[in-house]
Each structure stands twice: as C-alpha cells, then as structure tokens.
Amino acid sequence: MLLDVAHRFHIVDVFAEERYAGNPLAVVRDAADLDTATMQRIAREFGFSETTFVVSDPQASEPGVRVRIFTPAEEMPFAGHPTLGTAWVIREHLARGRPAALPLALGVGRVPVAFEAAGEGELAWLEAPSVRLGATLEPARIAPALGLAATDLAADLPARHVLAGIQFVHVPLASVAAVSKARLDPEACLPLAAAGFPTALYWFAREGEGVLRARMQWFARDDAARTVREDPATGSAAACLGAYLLAHGRPDFSLRIAQGVELGRPSLLRLEAKRGASGPRIRVGGRVIEVARGELL
Asked: Which fold has domain 132-279?
C-alpha cells in the first residue's frame, strides 16, 4: 500500500560513540495522518526495538512535540533512546534554529531534552519521568532467572522491581564476569511473572571507578516460543537505576554505563542523579549519530 503523503524517516544510533554502535532507532516525520495500525505496521517493518512517529508540528506553540513510540509489537509510553534520538532528529531537521532544549510530549507526559557540548561532540540529556520503586526479591528467588547462583548477586543491594512508564527488575551482581555469563531463563522467570513482576531484567555490576557494566534481556509473556531478546542500550532502565541507587543510600552521583558489549553494539550511557526538595532529579544522556535517511513509499 502506498501512503497518500510522503513521510521522510531518519535512522540514528543512540548512546553510540561511533556509527553502527549503540541502539538504532527509526524516526518517522510528519506522521499526524498515520493511524495507530499503520504506525504499528511500519514499526514492525523497521524491526528495531523502537520506532517513533512525530505527530505534531515542532514549530507550533505547544508545551511539547507530540511523539508516539512503538516496538514491533506494541506502543510504549516512554523509552530512553527513542526520546533522545527523536529529539535530536527534530532539532537537526525540523525545529527552528537548533534549540538548546526541546520538550517531547510522550505517553508518560512531558519529557524535557537538553543538548550540551561535550568535547568534540554533543550530548543529548533527558529529564527522567517519575520512577516508582516496587518490591524487592531475595537472591535465591531471582538468581535462577539469570542462570546464576545466589552468590553471583551483590551482597549490599537487593534485586528490585522499578517502574517508569515501563518496568524492570533491577538485579545488582557481584562482578562483570557475572554480568557477561548471565542469561535470562524464560521458564525460571514464569513464577516471578505469576507474582506480578516484569519479564524484563536489567542486571549490572561495577566495572571501574564511576563505571558500570549492564545488560537487559526480556521476553513477552504471551510469546509461545519464549524468545529472549536483548537491548544494546536501555535509557529507561538507566533512569530507573538512578532512583534505585538514591533510594538505597547512594549520595548524588554521576556514572557511565557500558551496555551492548556482548551484542557487538557497544553503548555508553551517562547517568546523573541528585536529591532535591521536590524529589530526585535524574538525567540520562548520550551521543546520537545519524546513519541513514529516506522516505516511506
């Protein structure tokens, strides 16, 4: 089916320090005329973890540019790399004068994005939406879901359910070696899912001073084949990590998170978290690199 109106798209790598790294994203411009079913089919065609659609005029006087986010299977209220990548495309190709800040109107509400010089390049930073902390999990209960022993988990922090529009179980591990060897076991996750926990697990360990290594894998509960998928960079999980670490006693901090190493798509996420009178202020940042552009037929 040919579309009645031309829709240009851009493909960008987010949280990437070079081309063909980080997490890829397709951004479809001028998408107000596309219905939900068509957006879903387009997202399935691209096949990336997410595809976004710019559905309002970036030059209109609105409190934020309205954007919709789709995986190949469903619409999402928020996700990190789609927020940063879409804001970058809007700024570079659609907005007037390359603004220093650009709010997006997403399913979770208004999410500001700022652009800051960093060395020879530039970083895009999002202000994380509200993060909620849920129940904790004992090591013996969560370790089998990652094919690990309870001793592979960190002794000083608990595994915990966290939510920011989308939700994860955050699992601190004792070593980078444990991060690399862990594999999500769908069958071992089923008892957790039955208890109301998400089947998206984000695990991490300290790699060096101010640096963490992380991974995120998930499967859909209605996926009959129980296919496990892995994300090369997960900005929403990093945002949740900021609230999680503050809640467990870490003072204000700035971290770098290396992800995607095991996939051959190395990613680098920046995370800043501070306590404030009105609640935590959490920012997630990274570089955005355009790799392709074209037009939907």
From this structure: Diaminopimelate Epimerase; Chain A, domain 1 (3.10.310)
